[in-house]
């Protein structure tokens, strides 16, 4: 069984303030992700790439279609129809998400944000603290920033914190939304090294990219999108 099998995934948005106008986010998406595999998705801004990831993570509720996921906790579960309780547990213990944008409570420090991700999986706090520090160092976040509030960080620092918080769990499945946007070459190398390390440990991944050179170094399959639909694919 594959880790994830997406069948005829569709997501539309209804703009009620514009007379019920409908915008297609993605349409007729069929993808299969095997255990330990990394799929990369490319396409222009607005092509629908992020919509797929947000449907999998259930930030968006799909309009139609199925996403069959092999969960450690629930067996084969359709993420399109899973309940909120199931999704909360799956996000905490199995699926990580790296966004370009940082969303934290105002009074959570950078270090605590990473620690909390591990503690939510059941990891003892003392161990979580050590692993959090190690991950923050890996992504080059200065120790002077660890006990500060990330709303003051630069865009690159926020993205590196997002990467640390998602990857510290070493999740079964990792979603990456432009994981190298706003990063310098040294930071990109740190991301690549951690992705390859997670792959060796069995993490399956799906990511969207504009940096094609970076993507081709880490993915196993590439798919391109246009106007909400998959238009091509190849083995990397």
Automatic annotation (TrEMBL):
SMART domains per UniProt: AAA (SM00382)
Pfam families documented for this protein: ABC_tran (PF00005)
Ranges annotated as spanning the membrane: none
GO molecular function: ATP binding; ATP hydrolysis activity
Keywords from the named record: ATP-binding, Nucleotide-binding
Superkingdom field: Bacteria
Domain ABC transporter as annotated: residue spans: 4-236
InterPro entries reported in the protein's UniProt record: AAA+_ATPase (IPR003593), ABC_transporter-like_ATP-bd (IPR003439), CP_lyase_PhnL (IPR012701), P-loop_NTPase (IPR027417)
PROSITE patterns: ABC_TRANSPORTER_2
Family of the protein in this entry: Belongs to the ABC transporter superfamily.
Name by which UniProt lists this protein: Phosphonates transport ATP-binding protein PhnL
Organism: Paenibacillus pini JCM 16418
């Amino acid at each position: 069984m594959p880790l994830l099998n997406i069948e005829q995934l569709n997501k539309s948005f209804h703009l009620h303030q514009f007379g019920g106008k409908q915008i297609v986010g993605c349409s007729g998406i069929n993808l299969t992700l095997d255990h330990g595999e990394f799929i990369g998705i490319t396409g222009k801004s607005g092509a629908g790439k992020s919509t797929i990831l947000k449907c999998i993570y259930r930030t968006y509720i799909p309009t139609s279609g199925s996403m069959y996921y092999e969960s450690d906790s629930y067996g084969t579960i359709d993420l399109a129809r899973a309940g909120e309780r199931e999704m909360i547990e799956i996000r905490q213990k199995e699926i990580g998400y790296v966004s370009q944008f940082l969303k934290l409570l105002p009074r959570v420090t950078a270090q605590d944000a990473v620690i909390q991700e591990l503690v939510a999986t059941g990891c003892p706090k003392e161990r979580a603290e050590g692993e959090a520090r190690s991950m923050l160092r890996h992504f080059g976040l200065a120790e002077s920033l660890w006990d500060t509030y990330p709303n003051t960080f630069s865009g690159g620092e926020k993205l590196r914190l997002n990467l640390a918080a998602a990857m510290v769990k070493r999740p079964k499945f990792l979603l990456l939304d432009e994981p190298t946007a706003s990063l310098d070459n040294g930071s990109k190398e740190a991301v690549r090294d951690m992705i390859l390390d997670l792959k060796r440990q069995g993490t399956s991944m799906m990511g969207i990219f504009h940096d094609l050179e970076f993507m081709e170094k880490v993915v196993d399959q590439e798919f391109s999108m246009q106007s909400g639909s998959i238009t091509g694919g190849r083995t990397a």
